[in-house]
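Note to self: user wants both folds in one dump. Writing first protein now.
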Amino acid sequence: MSLGKFLRKLWLGISNLFKKIDKEVKEIVPVAIGIIENIKKITDTHIGDVITAIIPGDLDDKIHDQLKEFLPKAIMNLTLIGDIAAIEDPNEKLKAILAKINVSPDDTKKVFYHGLASLVLERLADGKFDWSDATAVAEYYYQHILNEEKED
C-alpha cells in the first residue's frame, strides 16, 4: 500500500470519528481550536488581559470559568517553567508563560500547540474523548475545517 493510500484511509477513519461524535462535543471542537489559535496570535503581541484574548467571550459561564482556572495550570505544566510558578495573578502568569513560548523554536511551538489543543478538547469534552480521540479530532479540524475556512 502506498503512503498516499494509507494517509487517505487514515483521514477517512478520522473523518468518520469526527462525524460520529455527538453534537455537544462537536460544538466544542471549534472552541478548543479557537483558544489555541488565539494563544498563537497573542504570543507576538502585548495584550493586557490575556484571559479575555484567549477565551471567547460568548461561552457559557461555566465553561469560561473552567477554562480561566484550567488554562494557566495546563500551560504551566506543559512548559515546566519553574520561575513563573511564583506569579500569583493568573493573567500575569499566562503572559509570562506565553512570552517564554514565543521565544521557543517553531518545532517546539508546534508540539506545544498541538498538545494543548488536544488537552483542552479532552478537558472540555467531559470524558467523551480520550487523549487519542481528542488528538485525532483536533488534527482533523485543523487540516480539514480551519485550513479550508482560512483559504476561503
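First done. Writing the second protein, which came from a different request thread.
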Amino acid sequence: MRGSRTANQLNVGLMGCALLALGSCGGQIEATSNTSGDPPVDQSSDGGTGFLQDSVEARWVTTFSGVRRVKLDYTQPGVEYRERVGADGQGNFAIETIEVLTPHPDPDVFLAVQDLRQTLSYRYRDFAIKDWALFTQEYAVAIIDENRTIAGFPTVQVRIDRLTHARSYYEVDFDPITSLVLAYKEYDADTGQTLADVAFESLTYQPDLTGMSMVKYLYPTTTHSLSGGNLTSVFEFDPLVPSYIPPGYRLLDEIEKQDAPDGTRAKVYLSDGLDVIILASQKPVLASGSPLPSRMWSTDLGSWTGMSGDVKGYPIMVAGKVDALQQSLMVQSAFE
C-alpha cells in the first residue's frame, strides 16, 4: 500500500539516508579543459527515433554542461532549486546545487547534502533508459510534440508508460541530435500529480569544464559477476542475492563491492530497462554468536519505496519503484 503524505513527511530522513548509501558512486576527478561552445556531436544512429536507443549511452559519451531547474513534489511543500550539471564524455560527471528557490529551514545543510547526493541524482533520479532491450519489453513510447525547444535546442517530446504495474509515467524531451535528455516530468500514475519536473535552462556542448570536480565512485568500488566466481571470498561474507524478482524486472549479472566507511557493502541490481531496484547488504552482525533481532522499516517518497534495517544480522537497504511487499519478498527470497 502506498504510504500517506504524513508518513512520507515523517520518514523522508530514513529514505534519504538509504538512498544516499545506495547511490554512492564517484571519487572526484578534476575536469580538464575542452574547447568551449563547439557544436554538438551527432550521436543519432539513424536520424529517426534512433535517439531513443542512443540515449542509453548519450549521458556517458557526450561532453556538456548546463544549469537545470529542478522541482520535486514528493512531499508537501515541494522543493525547487537550480543545479549545475556537467559530464566529460568519459563516464565522469558532476551535479552542483547552486541555488535553493523554495523556503528551507537550513539551505546550507540542504546544499551540503545535495553534494553527497549527486551520484544518486545522476544515476537514479534523472530519467535515463538503461537497457534498450528490457525497456522495449516493458514500456510503451509515443511522440507527443516534435516542435519544442529547451535551453535553445529543438527537442522531441515523448510520453513513456510502463505496460504493467506502473507507479508513474513520464514526458521526456530528447535532443534528437545528441540523444541527451534535456527535460523530463514524472507523474503519479494514479493521480496524475507531478512528482518531478527537471529541465535545462542553459546548455553548452563541448564546454570548458575546468573547475568542475567530476565524480564516478564516491567510495572504492569494484564490479564482479554474480555467476562467475566465489563471492564469499570477494566480500568475506555471503552477499544477499534475491531469487524472487518483481514483475517486469530482471536480475543483472553484476554485483558491486563498495568499501564504505561503515564497512564493505554488496550491491545487486534489478532493472526493467528504465528503473532499477537496488539491494545492498553488509556483513552480518552477531551478538553472543547469534544474529541480532530482525527489524525493517519502509517508507514511500514519490514513486520510490525504501526499506532499511537488519534481517538475521544482515544490515540491509533496498530502494526502487516497487512497493514494500515486493521488496520484502525479495529480501525473504535472498535467505531461502
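Dump finished. Worth passing along: Helices lie at 5-22, 50-61, 107-116, 118-125, 132-138, 231-235, 324-333.
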